[in-house]
């Protein structure tokens, strides 16, 4: 269970010994493929745990990280007020796989997600600059956080317009440059190709979601391109028809908010971005970010077991953010249980991977149809008949 931890420690040990060429940083499992923020955070853990030898202490530290992550997630859910309280029991106690990812395997994925949830808390408090800084820091630990980026871009445009969101995007970009500067000065191409390698091939034996495919199809570049196109199409459809609620074209997001004809309501935590109240659904800040990430999960080239933490804590919100009748609660709980069962099947099987896609498809359907904007009330045209003149007027 300590294979990945030892590989992390070997990767950052090279940096501790003065190696700044990113292509020379390696561990037992292969070359270092994470951005620079990962190196600095795990270098701190390297020294805190006696050069990585005190694994028990590392597990205690990750147990603390797990509790902090839960606190940040609960704060988001309490502010949105969408999920029934009993669901939090399943989030805390019912996932063996999540406990393993955090406390047993010591992956870097939980570190990135904890920073992401901290950033979302800052967004909910209207601290957009600080939130963008933490979001970029999360990206520097692991690139899966970029799945939230389309939603964040939409929110920034909605809130600030094109010119207003540029400083926020600069915060994200500058932090990446600052963190990677020691490596960029030595071997910029090596750093960029290793830490932001979007074309990396995954091994078929570890896939959780595509086990039912033949391996040659799984490794085929045309299949990867199809998934990318499906992902982009899903983002466009959600952005135009589910995230954007103004009567204006979505291109109006490029304007300054004060210059828009139909000003959108401010993106506060309990504010729905379109008229219709609680019965209408809710494309809130959390909805936009969580659905953006979920679309990426559904179209992922491969999901490994530690990737479960990428969206586990967002599933209750995605299931309960739409209007829910009393009879619909149990099927949603069963859906959570089925997803958990798929992720706990090792090695994955044709049945488990197909079941996972079916569960994802059901969630997507209820997100799409459960957040349909209410019909615009039809107002009859004014009558052209002349208004009768009263006797007093005569």
UniProtKB/TrEMBL annotation:
* Cellular localization per UniProt: Endoplasmic reticulum membrane
Q: In which pathway does it act?
A: Protein modification; protein glycosylation
- Its Enzyme Commission number(s) read 2.4.1.258
What is the enzyme's main class? transferase
Pfam families with a match to the protein in the record:
ALG3
What sections of the protein cross the membrane?
32-48, 60-77, 106-124, 130-157, 169-186, 222-240
Keywords, alphabetical: Endoplasmic reticulum, Glycosyltransferase, Membrane, Transferase, Transmembrane, Transmembrane helix
Q: Name one GO cellular component term.
A: endoplasmic reticulum membrane
Report the superkingdom from the record. Eukaryota
- Membrane topology per record: Multi-pass membrane protein
List the catalytic activities from the record: an alpha-D-Man-(1->2)-alpha-D-Man-(1->2)-alpha-D-Man-(1->3)-[alpha-D-Man-(1->6)]-beta-D-Man-(1->4)-beta-D-GlcNAc-(1->4)-alpha-D-GlcNAc-diphospho-di-trans,poly-cis-dolichol + a di-trans,poly-cis-dolichyl beta-D-mannosyl phosphate = an alpha-D-Man-(1->2)-alpha-D-Man-(1->2)-alpha-D-Man-(1->3)-[alpha-D-Man-(1->3)-alpha-D-Man-(1->6)]-beta-D-Man-(1->4)-beta-D-GlcNAc-(1->4)-alpha-D-GlcNAc-diphospho-di-trans,poly-cis-dolichol + a di-trans,poly-cis-dolichyl phosphate + H(+)
InterPro entries recorded: Glycosyltransferase_ALG3 (IPR007873)
Name the Gene Ontology molecular function terms of this record: dol-P-Man:Man(5)GlcNAc(2)-PP-Dol alpha-1,3-mannosyltransferase activity
Task: Relate the protein's function as given in its record.
Answer: Dol-P-Man:Man(5)GlcNAc(2)-PP-Dol alpha-1,3-mannosyltransferase that operates in the biosynthetic pathway of dolichol-linked oligosaccharides, the glycan precursors employed in protein asparagine (N)-glycosylation. The assembly of dolichol-linked oligosaccharides begins on the cytosolic side of the endoplasmic reticulum membrane and finishes in its lumen. The sequential addition of sugars to dolichol pyrophosphate produces dolichol-linked oligosaccharides containing fourteen sugars, including two GlcNAcs, nine mannoses and three glucoses.
Q: Return the protein name.
A: Dol-P-Man:Man(5)GlcNAc(2)-PP-Dol alpha-1,3-mannosyltransferase
Gene name tied to this protein: Alg3
